[in-house]
Amino acid sequence: MAACPIAKKYGVTTASRVFEALAICKDLVIIKPRMQRFSHDKTLRASLYTRREDIEVVLLELCIEVCRRARRLGVQGRVVSLGMGETDGKRANSINRQLTLTNPTSLTQELSEAVMRLFNEYWQGLPASHLMIALNQLSSDRVQQLDLFDNRHKIFELEKTTDAIKDRFGDMAIMRASSMLEAGVARERAGQIGGHYK
Q1: From CA 167, how far away is CA 180, in angstroms rounded?
Q2: What are the percentages of helix, strand and coil residues in the chain, rounded to 5?
Q3: Interhelix angle for 108-122 vs 52-72, to 10°?
Q4: Strands 92-105 and 196-197: what pairing?
């Protein structure tokens, strides 16, 4: 029993339960769940994020994280989602919008352009208290749309290299200049695990 792959991965107890279930119900099929989407979100102090430029910095940082996770698992997404909570203390508004891209992507530039388009179209000017970016309808990144006038492959390889540097030396090893602004949260997030300080 200990030599079977299920026991190695999940333990002997779990493996024995799986085999018992298979013995009882011969029609039982084990289906491995597939990742449906990637998302990152950040709760903000609304009093600090009142200007468009400050909110855009955080949106870009969230796009970077979503794309990095997608590339790590070898997937790309076709549907971009923006979620946003805004409040000024008297009024509150919640925005949840989606945009379908022409081609699936895991490139930060393409994702951030779509997110900024949604943000500029639907933001009502209230201070931002919560931001969420998601990439849906995932597919393998081994299949890329070729374009004679585009250098997507070079950009993809550059972003993979950036990911490798961050994986080896930490999230603070390489980051965009906008993350060094007061509105940036990437430096703060780099010192956290699951939203909590290390």
Answers
A1: 20
A2: 40, 25, 35
A3: 140
A4: unpaired
Cβ atoms < 10 Å from Cβ of 127: 19
Q: Give me the tens of pLDDT residue by residue for the chain, a chain 198 residues long.
A: 556 777 777 777 877 777 776 666 666 555 554 667 889 998 887 677 888 999 999 999 999 999 999 999 999 999 999 999 988 888 888 999 999 999 999 999 999 999 999 999 999 989 999 999 999 999 888 776 666 667 888 888 889 999 898 889 888 778 777 777 777 777 666 665 665 555
Q: Identify the CA nearest to 77 among candidates 7, 137, 125.
A: 137
Write down all domains in the chain, each with its CATH number in brackets: 1-32 (no CATH), 37-197 (3.30.1490.100)
Token pair belonging to 2:
């200990």
Residue type, 54: D
